[in-house]
Sequence to fold (190 residues):
Amino acid sequence: MSTKTEKFVEVRGRWRLSKGASGLVRSLLATAEYFFKSRPTTLYPYEKNKLPEAFRGVLTYDIEKCIGCGACILACPNNCLYRRSGPKTDKNKPGVYIAFEPTHCLFCGLCVDACPPVSGALSHSSVISIVSSKKKVMWEPWEWAAFTELIKEKGWEYDAVDYDRVEPLIKRKAEEIKKRLEEKSTGGKK
Fold:
């Protein structure tokens, strides 16, 4: 003779088993459905991600187009842009350049919007981020311009750049740019 408690446990046990079996079948069907669909992820870094059209990557700086107005410095909410003096390459330009701290940048784009259309010295690249083991990375204007040129030369588009690894390249290229600016300012005379 069974008691009410035994019947309840027995009924409850069967109910759980049947619900568990149907749940298992449903989850297996869902897995099978997604198994034959295309992958939702990419095998980064072997496959490059498709970035949206309005993607705002690391800032690039065209040192020759910069008119030194400082509008970008005033617009920057993180204060990661700084004024630096350098060789005066043109009688219409004051010899003022912009230095940049890429590790503090939000990529908000306010500086790009503030940069006068006449100049167009600042723009966003397709470089996803700058990675560094250093707490503070500071780019002088010629180093920033060197980074901008190296993006195209080395094919760093759609990638994260390890600053510690590429720092010697940037420094070497920066020396070339600085020399080029000084030659331009003196009219090719030493």
